[in-house]
Structure formats: structure tokens, C-alpha cells
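Predict the 3D structure for this chain.
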Amino acid sequence: MSSLKIKRKGIVFIVSGPSGSGKTTLCRRLLLTRSAKGKLFKTISLTTRPKRRGEKSNKDYSFVSEKNFLRLKARGQLLESQKVFGFFYGTPKNFVEEKIKKGKDVLLSIDVKGARVVKKIYPGACGIFIMPPSGGALKQRLHKRSTESKDSMLRRLKLAKWEMGFAKKYDYVIINDKLAKAVSELETIMVNERLRRM
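Done. Predicted structure below.
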């Protein structure tokens, strides 16, 4: 008698961290690892904010008008949505649901408020918080971007301090001091979570 193989459901990996923690770079590097290729898919968040220098549409973010964003939200097409510094951010719902049903893992790079919403919808989601090595390093990274005004940077630093207070609520915390080491830690977490849930 042959046993039926139960198809595994994909895992939702949530990566959060303050602006300047390096979470975007870490997620990009993670997707290039052997463990992620063809198995892990990153959601492309929607945002109403202007594109920053070097960002690409439908790769870094899907840049939409506020009218279109609110229409998608009203139709229930966003898994979660937040307003940050006057701009909306949201995660497309269908993308996440389709991937996990097919047994593919999904990577969400979202803030702590969005993470709390997603955790309620997917209690089994794995939360990973990216910490900067220090407050000074965070300030330096934000300054390096040259995309923030002095006022905007102060607001981001204040928000960062608040966000870091939620790190203990995540399943894992990675201190992003050395990029290669942090990527390796992120990949190890992903692999171990897959093994644990087999």
C-alpha cells in the first residue's frame, strides 16, 4: 500500500528592521544563495512614495498612485498596509497565497506594524529582525544614502529606536555588522526552519 505524500505548505519569512539596518541588501543577497533559488520568492511591496535613486520599478517596489493603492486596499487585495511618513506601503495578498499553496516559501521585507498583521493571518510565519550594530552605525548608514533631509533623518532615527523595541517579539534577531556573516545567518535560519517543519 503506497503512502500518500502530503505536500508541504510554504513558509512565510518576515524580515523587519529599521531604515538603515541593511534588511533590503540582506534580502537581495539571500535570494542569490543556493538554498533560496527556486524555493524562496520575495514579495514586491507597493508604495505611494517617490522612487529613490537607484531603485527599479517592480524590482525594489511597485510604485503606484495613492488612488490606485487605496482602490487595491478597498478590494481586499493587500495582505497588510501601513502609512509611514505620509506614504502608503502594502503587501500583495494573491502573490503570498499562491506561492505558499504551491509549497514555495515567501520572503516579506516589512515594518513591525505590518509584521504583526501578517503574524495574525499566518501564525506559523517566521519573524527575523535585523539590528544595526549600533545607533551610530545606523545614523551613518542613513547619512550615506543622501536621500533624507535632516528633519527626515531625525524622524527615521526616532522611529528606528521605537522599532528596535519590538526585536524581542521576533523568532530570531540578526545583528548586521558584517554583511557576509549576516547573510549566512539568514540562510541558516531559513534552512533550519524548513528542516524543522518537514
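The CA atoms of residues 45 and 91 lie 5 Å apart.
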